Amino acid sequence: MNPQLASTVVSGVRRLLLFGAAALCALVLVGCSSAGSDNPSIVVSSPATQGFTGATFQPAKLLPHVTLTDTSGKPWNFVANSSGKVTVVYFGYTNCPDACPLDMASMATAIRTLTPEQQKRVQVVFITVDPKRDTTSAIRSFLDRNAKRVPPFVGLTGTPKQLTDTAHMLGLQFRVTSNSSGLEEVEHSSQLTAFDMTGTSNLVWLDPPVPSNIAHDLRLLLRGVTPA
């Protein structure tokens, strides 16, 4: 990929690096992490096709056959729980000072503009990247606080390996490190990944998310339109 057309999105210890005014692509990776992803997603941040406002990436991703733990302590499988729904996946953490609460609030604002029937067919799945501190009750409180007056968002956790493997299946990365004071710092890819009703995705909304654009794209996905 041309380095003049690359950007890296990082949240937590978060930065956006754009090389060149005409940047058209984003490599969705943790910016200062040395950890690699086996299958990173290349995001094209020019307007998507078929009337979508989000950005597209290739190759398309499929919802993984992975089971994590939801905020009620029960197993939650991506494929089994996503049939016939538009599923938006987001990796974040409850102590995030900026992007995570804003992104969840933006999703909630977008969903509130949909009809009640449409809302039932959209689910937002928040996956913690900080399982040491993010208990199931902390995740539930975070989601309920930042995503009000919409169907409850799904909150998931798991072992560090489960979470890392799931992120890499989706072309995403995150890292938790301790600084010199012993405080933990979290870095993570920051975007909302939208899967259509077949469990396929090549559409993301990058920071800062625009609720009206998200709602527009959700309506298209609910009608069976895809950006590819």
How would you sum up this structure, described in words?
The protein is α+β, with helices and mostly antiparallel strands and 228 residues long. It has a single domain (3-222), classed as Glutaredoxin. 23% of the residues lie in helices and 30% in strands. The chain has five helices and 15 strands. The protein has helices at 99-112, 116-120, 136-146, 160-169, 211-222; strands at 7-9, 11-12, 16-18, 25-27, 42-44, 55-62, 67-70, 75-77, 86-92, 122-128, 154-157, 174-178, 184-188, 191-195, 200-206. A hairpin with a 5-residue loop joins strand 12 and strand 13. The chain is globular and about 50 Å long. The protein starts with 6 loop residues before the first strand and ends in a 6-residue tail after the last helix.
